[in-house]
Design a protein that fits this description.
The structure holds two protein chains of two kinds. Chain A contains 18 helices and 17 strands. By secondary structure, chain A is α+β, with helices and mostly antiparallel strands. The relative contact order of chain A is 0.09. Chain B has 23 helices and four strands. The radius of gyration of chain B is 26 Å and the shape is globular. The chains are: A alpha+beta, B mainly alpha.
C-alpha cells in the first residue's frame, strides 16, 4: 500500500483519508470491550470503497470515526495529510435513516449543509437549488420531508450531502431503507453522477449489507468480521464495465464474499484457495449467536429441504427476496446448531437438518433441544448453572456479566435474548422476565440431561 | 407560518420577490389595534411600577377597575413566563450538556419542584423589597418571581428530557454539517423540544393562575403586602364576603383564560404541528382559525420578509463568529450512537481552548459553590436548631395529615375520572367534543373557586379538615382525567375487537384490556396530580375568607401560617419536610411504578 503522500492533495492518486491502527473500545477502564481492532484503511482519490460485514462488525463505527463523529480509542485518522481533529471537514454523510429535519422544508434541509460556510442567503439558496436540480428534486423545494416517499427523502439526503461539495462522500447504508426498485434507480443515478464527474466528489466510502450492491458499485471491497470488528479480507472490485452485467464474474465475486461471510470462525486463507485477495485479520475464538428466531429458522430449513437440501446461498437469497444481511444469520444459525453446513457459498442440510425439516411440531422440539444442548455453548452453560444451583434459579445479571467480557453491553443483551428465545423453545430452561431470572420448570428437570 | 420562524422557512423558488404580495385585510387592522393596546398597557404598568412604594395597595372592588387589574396580572404572568422560559433554556441546556453538572442539577430540579410557592416567599420578598426600597419595582419583581416558582420547573423538566432523547442521526447530521452552538439550538434542539415545551407552557400558565392569589397578596410577619391585580381583587372580595364581586372577578379570570387559549395557545399548537418528528404524513393536524387568519396577514408577511428573516440571519451570523465548530473534546467524549444516546457536550469544551485554564476556573467555581452550600446548610441548621421537640412533632403530625389528604384526594380523583375518562376516550365522537371542554374547565384555577366552595364545605362535618381534600381534588383531578381520556383513545382497535370477539365483559374487560392499556397514562396523570396536591395544600389547608382565617392540621397550613407569622425556623422545617416527603414518594413509589408502566404495559 502506498505511503502517505504529504503534498498530494492535487495529485489524483493521493490518499485523501486514512485510518492508521484505529481501535475502538466501549465501556470504562476496567471492562473494556473491543469493537474495532487495529484498522488500517486508505481512501484514495477516484476510489469507491464498499465496507461489508455482519452487524456488530463495527463498519458504521469506523465510518463515524473517519468522519470525526467519534474519536478512536487508539490509532489516528489522517485527513489531507494531518491528524484529524473534530469533525472531518472534507466529509459529508448520507444516512440510512435519511436524518432529515422534519420541521425544515426540502430547500432548508439542503441549505443546512451550507450554513457553516457563511455564504450570503442568496448564494446559499442558489447553490441549494443547483443541488436540488442535480438530484432531480425540482418542484419539491417547499415540501416537508413527511410529504415525500422514501426515495425522495433519500434524494434530499443526497442533495444535502452533495451541496457542500465534499471531497469524500460517506454513504451509511443509504439504500437499505428503500424499496428494491427505488434503490436500484437511485444507485444508478449516483453512479452516473460519480462516473461522469458531474460532482466534485473525489472518493466514496459506502457501508452496506447488500453484497450484490457492493459488487456492482465498488472499486474495492472490504469484508469485516465481528467480535472484535476487523477487516477480514480486501477484494478488488470488478472492472467498471463488467459491474452492471450480472455475468459469471459477478456471481463468482458475490459467491466468494458469501463464502467468507458465512464462515465467520474460519481463517480466510483456508476458504479462498485462489489468493487474489489480501487477507487481513484472524478469526475470533468464541461462539456468537446469530439473532434469528425459531420460526424463521424452521422456515429456512424446511425451504432448503424442499429445494433438495442444497442450494447456492446467493440464489436462495434472491428466491426468498432476502438480502445477505437477512439470510446469513439463518445459514449461520443452521450451521451452529448442526442442522446445516455452509460449503463454498452453498448451504446444505445435515442428517439432523433433514430430520428436523420432516418432523412434526413435538419432534421438532425434541431435535432442537438435543442440538441446542450439545452445540450452543451459552445455552449449555445456562442449563448447567441452573442444575448446579440449589434452588434451580439463576439471575440473568450473572450471565450478562460473563457475556460482557466478550461483547459490548448491547450485544451481550442481544446474545442473552437470543439464548432465552432458543432455550425456552428447547425447554432447556424457563425465564421470568419480571424477575430477570432463569429457572427450571419441574418437568424439564429430569429430561434435561 | 413564516412570521414565527426566522429560521427555516424559505419562500418559493428564486426568492420571495416574485410572489404576489398579500393584500392588507381586517386581520392587519386587528393586529395594529392589538399592538397599540399592548403598548398602552405597558406604559400604564410602567407608570404604576415606578410609583412610590405603598406596600398594601387598596383594592377597588368596582367593576370598572377590573380591566386594569386583569391587565396588570396578565402582564405579571407574562413576565414570569418569559423568565421561566429563559431559565428553562439555560438550566436544561447545562444539565443535559454537562455530565458533572447534571448529577447535581437533575435532582435539584426534583427538589425545587416539591417546594411550594409560599416557602420562597420570605427570601424573595424581603430581598427584593430591600433592593428597591422606594418604588414598586421590588414588590412587583417579588410577585413575578413567586409566579415564576410555580411555572418554571415542569417546563425545565420537559426541555431537559427532550434534549436527552434527540435521535442520534439528527445529532450526527448537525455535527457532519458543522452547525455551531447557536444553529444547533435553533435548527435542531428547540424545534425538537417545541411541542412538549408548548404543552408544558400551557400547564405552567395554569399553575401560575392557580397561585396568582398567593403571589399578589401575602402577609409576612408584621407586614402585609398587596399588589393591584386580579388575584388581590378576588382575595379582597372573598375577605369582604362580597359574592357579587367574587363572581365578577372569577368571570374576568375565565374570560382571560379563554382568550389566551384561543388567541395564543391554539394557534401555537397548530403552528407547532410542523415540529412533529414523524417522517410520514397522517393523523389529524390541530387547526386554529386565528392562525389561519394570521397567515393571511399582509403586515406579518411584510414583517417576516423585511424584519424577522434578516434579523434571524443577523443573529445567526452574530452568534457564529466567536464560537468554533464542534470541538474535538466534544466528539471525544461521546459514546457511539449504538451504545448510549449522544449528548450535547459542547459548552464547556468549546468555550475553553486552554484546558488548564478551564480546570482552574472549574475548580474555583466548584469551591465557591461548595462553600456556599456549606454556609447555607449551616445557616439553615442554626435556624432550625431553635425549634423545640414539640415543633418537630407538630411538623411530623402535619406531614402525616397532609399525606393522608393527598392520598384521599388522589383516590377520589381516580375513582371518578377513570370510569368517565374511559367512557369518553372509547367513543371518539364524544372525546372530540369533550376534550376542549375538559381542558377549559381544568384550566380554571381552583383557588379562585375556593372561597365560594368553602361556603358550602365549611358547614359540613369535619370542616376544613375534610374540605381541604375537596379543594386539593379540585386542583388536581383534571390531570388524571386528561391522561385517562388520552390513554383510552390510544387503545388500538384490534385489542378492542379481540375483547369483543372473545366476549370479555364487565370486570374481565377492565382487568385484561382497559386497565393495563391505560396504566402508563394513569401513572403519568397520578404523578402530576399528587405533585399538584402537595403544592395545593398550602392554599387548601389555610384559607382566609370573610375576614376570618380557617386552617386545619397539615403541612400546607403550617407553611402558610408560619410564612404569615414570619416564623422562619418553622417555615424552613416544614418546607424541608414537604420536600423530603415528596421526593421520597417520587423515588419510592412513583418511579418504580413508572418503570413498570414503561416495561410491562407499554403498547407497541
Amino acid at each position: 500500500m502506498a505511503t502517505m503522500n504529504q503534498t498530494g492533495s492535487a495529485v489524483n492518486q493521493g490518499t485523501l483519508l486514512a485510518a492508521r491502527g484505529v481501535s475502538k473500545y466501549y465501556g470504562d477502564e476496567h471492562e473494556r470491550v473491543l469493537v474495532l481492532d487495529s484498522i488500517d484503511l486508505e481512501l484514495r482519490a477516484g476510489e469507491f470503497i464498499a465496507l461489508l460485514g455482519p452487524s456488530g462488525s463495527g463498519k458504521s463505527t469506523l465510518l463515524r470515526i473517519l468522519a470525526g463523529l467519534i474519536a478512536p480509542s487508539r490509532g489516528e485518522v489522517v485527513a489531507d495529510g494531518a491528524p484529524l481533529r473534530g469533525t472531518n471537514e472534507q466529509v459529508a454523510i448520507v444516512f440510512q435513516s435519511f436524518a432529515l429535519y422534519p420541521w425544515l422544508t426540502v430547500q432548508d434541509n439542503v441549505e443546512l449543509g451550507l450554513l457553516a460556510k457563511e455564504l450570503s442567503p442568496r448564494e446559499r439558496r442558489e447553490r441549494a437549488l443547483r443541488a436540488i436540480d442535480l438530484i432531480g428534486l425540482d418542484g419539491f423545494e417547499t415540501a416537508y420531508p413527511r410529504e415525500l416517499s422514501g426515495g425522495m427523502k433519500q434524494r434530499v439526503g443526497f442533495a444535502r450531502a452533495l451541496v457542500v461539495e465534499p471531497e469524500v462522500l460517506f454513504l451509511d447504508e443509504p439504500f437499505s431503507a428503500l424499496d428494491v426498485l427505488v434503490a436500484e434507480n437511485l444507485r444508478h443515478e449516483l453512479l452516473d453522477l460519480w462516473r461522469e464527474r458531474k460532482i466534485p466528489t473525489r472518493a466514496i466510502l459506502m457501508v452496506t449489507h447488500n453484497i450484490d450492491e457492493a459488487v456492482s458499485m465498488a472499486d474495492r471491497l472490504l469484508v469485516f468480521g465481528a467480535n472484535p470488528g476487523r477487516i477480514r479480507i480486501e477484494l478488488p472490485g470488478l472492472p467498471t464495465e463488467r459491474r452492471a452485467v450480472k455475468d459469471g464474474a459477478h456471481a463468482e465475486l458475490v459467491d466468494t464474499i458469501y463464502r467468507v461471510m458465512t464462515n465467520p470462525l474460519e481463517d480466510v486463507a483456508t476458504l479462498l484457495p485462489s489468493a487474489h485477495a489480501v487477507e487481513r485479520g484472524a478469526a475470533p475464538r468464541y461462539q456468537m449467536l446469530p439473532h434469528v428466531n425459531i420460526g424463521e429458522l424452521t422456515g429456512f430449513i424446511e425451504r432448503l429441504h424442499a429445494l433438495g437440501g442444497r442450494e447456492d446461498l446467493y440464489e436462495l437469497a434472491r428466491e426468498l427476496h432476502m438480502e445477505a444481511d437477512d439470510i446469513l444469520p439463518l445459514a449461520e444459525a443452521a450451521d451452529l446448531l448442526g442442522f446445516g453446513d455452509v460449503q463454498e457459498g452453498d448451504v446444505l442440510l445435515t442428517e439432523e437438518g433433514r430430520r428436523f425439516a420432516e418432523a412434526g411440531v413435538l419432534e421438532e422440539k425434541e431435535l432442537f433441544r438435543a442440538q441446542a444442548a450439545s452445540h450452543i455453548e451459552l445455552i449449555d452453560a445456562i442449563a448447567r448453572d441452573l442444575h448446579a444451583a440449589s434452588d434451580h434459579r439463576l439471575p440473568e445479571d450473572a450471565v450478562i456479566e460473563r457475556l460482557e467480557q466478550t461483547f459490548s453491553p448491547i450485544e451481550a443483551r442481544r446474545q442473552l435474548d437470543t439464548a432465552i428465545d432458543w432455550g425456552r423453545y428447547a425447554e432447556l430452561f424457563a425465564y421470568d422476565d419480571d424477575a430477570g431470572e432463569f429457572f427450571l420448570e419441574e418437568e424439564s428437570q429430569p429430561a434435561a440431561r | 407560518m413564516r412570521m414565527f420562524a426566522p429560521y427555516g422557512a424559505t419562500p418559493q423558488r428564486g426568492a420571495g420577490d416574485d410572489r404576489t404580495p398579500t393584500r392588507p385585510g381586517w386581520i392587519d387592522a386587528a393586529l395594529i389595534v392589538a399592538l397599540i393596546a399592548l403598548a398602552y398597557g405597558i406604559v400604564v404598568a410602567a407608570s404604576h411600577w415606578t410609583a412610590p412604594l405603598t406596600p398594601s395597595a387598596s383594592i377597588d372592588l368596582a367593576p370598572r377597575s377590573l380591566p386594569l387589574y386583569a391587565g396588570l396580572s396578565t402582564l405579571r404572568m407574562a413576565l414570569a413566563y418569559i423568565l421561566s422560559l429563559a431559565f428553562t433554556l439555560v438550566y436544561a441546556h447545562i444539565a443535559a450538556g454537562n455530565r458533572r453538572a447534571e448529577r447535581v442539577m437533575a435532582p435539584l430540579l426534583d427538589i425545587l419542584q416539591s417546594i411550594p410557592i409560599l416557602s420562597f416567599l420570605p427570601g424573595v420578598v424581603l430581598g427584593l423589597v430591600a433592593l428597591f426600597p422606594r418604588s414598586h419595582i421590588g414588590l412587583e419583581l417579588a410577585a413575578i418571581l413567586l409566579i415564576f416558582t410555580s411555572q418554571a420547573w415542569n417546563m425545565t423538566f420537559s426541555f431537559y428530557h427532550s434534549l436527552l432523547i434527540i435521535p442520534s442521526d439528527l445529532r450526527e447530521a448537525a455535527s457532519v454539517y458543522r452547525l455551531n452552538f447557536w444553529r444547533r439550538f435553533t435548527r435542531l434542539e428547540l424545534p425538537f423540544a417545541m411541542i412538549p415545551l408548548i404543552w408544558n407552557s400551557m400547564m405552567s400558565w395554569a399553575g401560575g393562575w392557580f397561585f396568582l392569589m398567593a403571589a399578589e397578596q401575602f402577609t409576612l410577619g408584621p407586614h402585609s403586602f398587596q399588589l393591584p391585580g386580579l388575584g388581590s381583587y378576588l382575595q379582597t372580595a372573598a375577605n369582604d364576603g362580597n359574592v357579587g364581586a367574587l363572581l365578577l372577578g372569577l368571570a374576568t379570570l375565565i374570560a382571560i383564560i379563554v382568550l389566551l387559549d384561543q388567541l395564543l395557545w391554539r394557534p401555537l399548537i397548530a403552528w407547532a404541528d410542523r415540529f412533529k418528528l414523524e417522517q410520514t404524513a397522517g393523523g389529524e393536524a390541530p387547526t386554529s382559525g386565528v392562525l389561519r387568519a394570521l397567515r393571511r396577514s399582509a403586515l406579518l408577511e411584510w414583517l417576516s420578509g423585511h424584519v424577522f428573516a434578516p434579523s434571524g440571519e443577523w443573529l445567526d451570523r452574530a452568534f457564529s463568529r466567536p464560537l468554533r465548530p464542534a470541538s474535538r473534546v466534544e466528539t471525544a467524549k461521546r459514546e457511539t450512537a449504538s451504545v448510549a444516546p449522544i449528548r450535547l457536550r459542547s459548552s464547556e469544551a468549546a468555550a475553553w481552548p486552554d484546558r488548564s485554564a478551564a480546570q482552574v476556573v472549574r475548580a474555583i467555581v466548584g469551591v465557591v459553590a461548595l462553600a456556599a452550600c456549606v454556609w447555607g446548610a449551616a445557616a439553615a441548621l442554626r435556624l432550625v436548631a431553635h425549634l423545640s421537640l414539640g415543633d418537630w412533632g407538630n411538623v411530623t403530625v402535619s406531614a402525616g395529615a397532609t399525606l393522608l389528604r393527598t392520598v384521599a384526594a388522589l383516590a377520589i380523583g381516580v375513582a371518578w375520572t377513570v370510569p368517565l375518562g374511559v367512557a369518553i376516550g372509547l367513543h371518539p365522537r364524544w372525546a372530540r367534543r369533550a376534550q376542549p371542554i375538559v381542558q377549559m374547565v381544568a384550566s380554571i384555577p381552583a383557588t379562585a373557586l375556593f372561597p365560594a366552595l368553602l361556603l358550602i364545605l365549611i358547614g359540613l362535618p369535619g370542616g376544613l379538615n375534610i374540605a381541604a381534600i375537596g379543594l386539593m381534588l379540585l386542583g388536581t383531578q383534571w390531570y388524571v382525567l386528561f391522561n385517562v381520556i388520552a390513554g383510552a383513545m390510544a387503545i388500538p382497535t384490534d385489542l378492542r375487537e379481540a375483547a369483543a370477539i372473545y366476549k370479555l365483559r364487565g370486570w374481565q374487560r377492565w382487568r385484561y384490556m382497559i386497565l393495563p392499556a391505560i396504566f402508563p397514562w394513569l401513572v403519568t396523570g397520578m404523578i402530576t396530580a399528587t405533585g399538584g396536591a402537595w403544592n395545593a395544600s398550602i392554599v387548601a389547608e389555610y384559607v382566609a375568607f370573610n375576614s376570618h382565617v380557617y386552617q386545619t392540621v397539615g403541612l400546607g397550613a403550617l407553611i402558610a401560617s408560619s410564612a404569615a407569622r414570619g416564623d422562619f425556623a418553622l417555615l424552613l422545617a416544614a418546607t424541608l419536610a414537604m420536600a423530603a416527603v415528596v421526593v421520597a414518594m417520587n423515588r419510592l413509589v412513583w418511579r418504580p411504578l413508572y418503570r413498570l408502566a414503561e416495561q410491562r404495559f407499554h403498547l407497541d
